[in-house]
Amino acid sequence: MSISIVILAAGKGSRMKSTTPKVLHEISGKSMLFHAIDAGQKISDDITVVLYHQAARVQEAIEAEYQNVNFHMQDVEQFPGTGGAMKGVTTKYEKTLILNGDMPLITQNSLLALTGGEADINMSVIKLDNPDGYGRVLIDNEKVQEIVEQKDCNEAQLKTKTVNAGIYCVNTELLNRYIPLLSNDNAQEEYYLTDIVKMAVDENRTVSPIYVEEEEFKGVNSKFDLAEAEIIMQDRLKKELMAMGVTMRFPDTIYIDCRASFEGESILENGVTILGASKLINAHIKTNSIIENSIIENSDVGPMGRIRPLSHLKDTHVGNFVEVKKSTLTGVKAGHLAYIGDASIDEGSNIGAGVITCNYDGKAKHKTIIGKNVFVGSDCQLVAPINIEDDVIVAAGTTLNKDVKKGSLAITRTALKILPDFFYKFFGK
Ligand code: UD1
Ligand code: MG
């Protein structure tokens, strides 16, 4: 569709009380601004983000993720306000959709609803029991007449419960003509984008109110708003995943990153956390386990298992208190209390309780390679780099620091001594 999008993200966001720019705060693993950009990119290839506060940091974050986003630096000193933000912005298409960078819950469908029809301006409105803080929208005969900011309202206007949700789709030619004409003659001495509505009405142009769901247009201004938006986003994500066949026990206790993907039929028990772009295929993740940026395929983890980034488990059983990092396990059983880092372990191998891959020598990380049908007994240390070939037994309690050839037994053990009656000699009878 031929529509341009401008995302306003220059504001300071002082109510967040944070050194991180407001729009870079994350909801379900993705920054608020990226949620808005993603929704926008589904309907437009011309997106401009308006920046000012911590502009370099926000721009850098966007550029690391997106190639085709344009930037505009607002002159906040001279032209503060949402109208000032639009000064000097040029857009490619006939219609320009303007939205705020702090509305992470907006969806493609709601954006589309604003772009239709014949009106010169479509604007998003919500009816609220408590309209406090919002610009009031004066509507006559289903046409918007004016938006009055709360601080500029008279007594009667303050009672209006129809408010401006803050998203507009404007005929670009009108926008380009009106923005230079805005004045800051108002209570906040700011240039209000909302004043373009009155300008259009004065020229007999039509401004249509589009009634929208409050939830999607929720602006995030504080850490409390952030937490509320997170709950709404998690609810949405989980509903979609359950509709796709993912089973969740007590969904309210589960956290899922919006970048995670699921295939087949997976089960998530209570307290499970799925982080990053993890991929779960027919996985069973048991109580209180954490999966981070990993692939879990026809495998089960936990309870209380921790799978750290860049791991791939296939046809594998990982039990309680096992930590796996950057490792590939295929057809493996690691039932209890182990650390497996920078390893690759092949089919039919068993990792006993208390096994540790000593992958770090204090300077660098090293790999542990374990072949097929290897039995690693309990409480072994595998000092990497190390290569254990197929069909090997590593006896319980072994500290292994040399490669082991196919079919061997590896065992390090000091001779066992048993001294009869030693207890009584030591402690007395
Ligand atoms: C604005 C609307 C108000 C509406 C409300 C909905 C105006 C004048 N008022 O008010 O009618 O009910 O949103 O949430 O537009 N921004 C800039 N540069 C600036 C100031 C703001 O880019 O100089 C950006 C902010 O980063 C934010 C957005 O514009 O993303 C909205 O700014 P904000 O200060 O929150 O506007 P409100 O006072 O809430
Ligand atoms: Mg606001």
UniProtKB/TrEMBL annotation:
Record keywords, A-Z: Acyltransferase, Cell shape, Cell wall biogenesis/degradation, Cytoplasm, Magnesium, Metal-binding, Multifunctional enzyme, Nucleotidyltransferase, Peptidoglycan synthesis, Repeat, Transferase
Signal peptide start and end residues: none
Keyword Aminoacyl-tRNA synthetase: no
Gene Ontology molecular function, alphabetical: glucosamine-1-phosphate N-acetyltransferase activity; magnesium ion binding; UDP-N-acetylglucosamine diphosphorylase activity
CDD domains for the chain: GT2_GlmU_N_bac (cd02540)
Domain MobA-like NTP transferase stretches: 6-115
Protein's UniProt name: Bifunctional protein GlmU
Record organism: uncultured Sulfurovum sp
Lineage of the species this protein comes from: Bacteria, Pseudomonadati, Campylobacterota, Epsilonproteobacteria, Campylobacterales
Protein encoded by which gene: glmU
